[in-house]
Amino acid sequence: MQTQDPTDLLAEVLAKKAGGFVELRFHKRRTRSVAVEKGRVDSSRISEHTGVGVRVLEDGTWGFASTDRVESAAIEKAIDDARRAARASAAKRKERTPDLPRVELARGRFDAPGIDLIDKPIDEALALVLRLEQDARKASSAIQSASSSYTELYEEKGVVTSDGAKAWSRLVRPEFRIMAVASEAGELQRGVERVGVTGGWECLFQHDSPEVLTERASRTAVDLLKAGYPSGGRKRVLLSPNLVGILTHEAIGHTVEADFVASGSCARGKLGARVGSDLVTLCDSGISEYHEGAGGSLPVDDEGVPTQRTTIIDGGKLVSYLHDRESAAAFGVAPTGNARAWEYDDEPLIRMRNTYIAPGEQTYDELVAGIEDGLLLDGAGNGQADANGEFMFGTLTARTIKNGKLGELQRGVNISGQAFDVLCSVDGVSSEFRWDLGSGYCGKGQPAKVDAGGPWVSCEVLVGGRQ
């Protein structure tokens, strides 16, 4: 399945409607998904959404319009509508958007690896989730129910701007999820495994086969039925890559998005300041660093800016925010390629891509051995963070660490703290690295596919346990 390169059509329309800054963004998205629960197909869906979004900048004011008709007349009308909207808004605005900074914009065709997945029949994915859901239910007599799902997101984008961008890109993002629920004496526990990537079928299961993920989810649910609770208090903990990922994304990444910075996040005014230990280097990248397939990868952002690695914290010091072209102009810096829109009829916002703490030099075993009295925490659960960097996250499992030795499995706990304080407490970072949050979505007015992860990290947090 392939749409003809739309950028030639967009360029022809732009030539006819020259004048001021104009950005045309073609976007086609196809979603295929299947879900199975209790031995039956719960849902099977295919949807498609195609159109062109138009932004103009006139009198220092943005105007936006869109059309679901990918043809010259409809796009020309959308440009006129966007210009009228900008002029109407400009008359009532005191502040003006500065001229966008000049930057080398993307030109050409960009295909992500694994694009041939779009030709794979969905029947194969359906057979897989049916079989694995059944395997999960049969794994133990304690398993009460199970569910499994597969979702595949295919996107084509064409971005053409009046100042030089002309890029067409294609990518596909599959994800798999398995959950088992175990019951004993009226108590329920769950085990969940999920994985999402930018790439093909082989990339999706590059670390663990779907059978291994299913066995792990079932075993976790059963084992947690007999697990106790750790004690609460401030503790030295070893965070798994998925917990490192949710910390970097939710509690830090959002605070350094330039629109949040301008609104007064805790990162405002801290460029050059120490916000972590010397061991902490934190980045956001459109490229899949260290391993293939990070779920937020994209070659070009939705303003036509090539994506890149942006180092946010370097050796513990805050050195950059995340920018689109408008915020870059306001801050007097170069854009970082973080403008993203979910659908063609959404305006681009500053969003993360793949956010992570860079790996260090210690091994996992060395980090465990270095903790006298603490916990190993794994499995990202629900949680929240605010503009002050304060966070509270749930974890799925915990293991005690005594005198450098792993102990018994315990139930997951809530952890909380202030993100920069936690980074300052980091005293160990593993050389092992993993992307671990490629399934699911980030929300900020509109969804976005992102990923996050990192190494195993030894730090101090407040643990909410039972007395």
Topology:
Layout: H1 7-16, E1 21-37, E2 40-58, E3 61-67, H2 72-90, E4 107-111, H3 122-138, E5 143-161, E6 166-184, E7 187-196, H4 201-204, H5 210-224, E8 233-239, H6 241-253, H7 258-262, E9 282-285, E10 309-314, E11 317-318, H8 325-331, E12 339-340, E13 349-350, E14 354-357, H9 364-369, E15 373-385, E16 390-402, E17 405-411, E18 414-418, H10 419-424, E19 428-429, E20 434-435, E21 442-443, E22 447-448, E23 451-454, E24 457-464
Parallel strand pairs: 4-6, 8-15, 14-23
Antiparallel strand pairs: 1-2, 1-5, 2-3, 5-6, 6-7, 8-24, 9-10, 9-14, 10-11, 12-13, 15-16, 16-17, 16-18, 18-24, 19-24, 20-23, 21-22
Task: Write up what this structure looks like.
The chain is an alpha+beta fold. It folds into two domains: 7-224, 2-Layer Sandwich (PmbA/TldD fold); 233-464, no CATH class. The protein has helices at residues 7-16, 72-90, 122-138, 201-204, 210-224, 241-253, 258-262, 325-331, 364-369, 419-424, and strands spanning 21-37, 40-58, 61-67, 107-111, 143-161, 166-184, 187-196, 233-239, 282-285, 309-314, 317-318, 339-340, 349-350, 354-357, 373-385, 390-402, 405-411, 414-418, 428-429, 434-435, 442-443, 447-448, 451-454, 457-464. The strands form five sheets. Strands 1, 2, 3, 4, 5, 6 and 7 form a seven-stranded mixed beta sheet that branches. β2 and β3 (61-67) form a beta hairpin. α3 runs parallel beside α5. The longest helix has 19 residues, at 72-90. The model has no long low-confidence stretch (mean pLDDT 95).
